[in-house]
Amino acid sequence: MNSEYDKTIYLIGNEIENKEKTIYYFKSEFDLPSYTGNTLDAIADSLSEVKDRVEILLTKENIRYICDHSYAFKVLMMLGNAVNENPNLHIFFRE
User: Fold this and answer.
1) How far lies 37's CA from each of 32, 40, 42, in Å?
2) For residue 87, how many other CB atoms are within 10 A of its CB?
3) Which among 7, 13, 20, 53 has the fewest CB atoms less than 10 Å away?
């Protein structure tokens, strides 16, 4: 982990292939509050309040998976919006 970040999350495509897996995955990986609802909007709202500096890593393999699965792509777009709103979240692409 880069010392300028408090946490590193490796975004795994098949963990965001459907709503149930995505909600569980994001709540646990991002340590979202227990009151976070079970919708992408609720996840996005909670991500906007993340105080830790988080680097989110995507590999070429996971990007391919996400682009081939419409729900995963929708989740990535939500995450991109959250990153734009919260200066503590950063997405990086790695091999």
Assistant:
1) 10, 8, 5
2) 8
3) 20
Confidence (pTM): 0.90
From first to last of its 95 residues, the chain has per-residue pLDDT tens of 457 999 999 999 999 999 999 999 999 999 999 999 999 999 999 999 999 999 999 999 999 999 999 999 999 999 999 999 999 999 999 88
Integer-rounded Cα Rg, in Å, for the chain is 12
Q: Which of 12, 38, 10 is nearest to 24 (CA)?
A: 38
Q: What is the dihedral of CA 78, 84, 86, 89, to 10 degrees?
A: 80
Cβ-contact 83, 48 below 8 angstroms = no
Q: Which residues of 34-45 are buried (b: 16+ CB within 10 A; e: fewer)?
A: eebeeebebbbe
